[in-house]
Amino acid sequence: MIYDILIFFIFTIILLGGIGAFFMLLKNSLQVDDEHLIDAKPPNAEKGDHSN
Fold first, then answer.
1. Which residues, given as ranges, of the chain have pLDDT below 70?
2. Is 49 exposed, middle or buried (0-12, 13-18, 19+ CB in 10 A)?
3. DSSP 3-state of 52
4. pLDDT the model gives residue 40
5. In Å, how far are 25, 33, 37, 40, 45 from 30, measured between CA atoms?
6. CA distance 35 to 13
């Protein structure tokens, strides 16, 4: 019984840690992509305005 409970807690902690780490990586990658898109849009918009 005790070993089953310990294995269950260790398994849940590992699962929660893996899901949390994956979510943090996704969040960081999305923030970096948004920053790059925001930095890339103004020059493209200015070029579009000049061409029009």
1. 31-52
2. exposed
3. coil
4. 52
5. 9, 5, 10, 15, 22
6. 33
CA geometry: angle at 14 spanning 11 and 19, to 5°? 125
CA-to-CA distance for 7 and 44, rounded, in angstroms?
55
Query: Does pTM surpass 0.70?
Result: no
Residue with tokens 């979510």: 23
pLDDT score of 19:
94
DSSP calls for 15-38: HHHHHHHHHHHHHHHHHHHHHHHH
Residue 6: its pLDDT value, please?
94
> The tokens 């493209």 sit on which residue?
44
Token code pair at residue 34: 């948004």
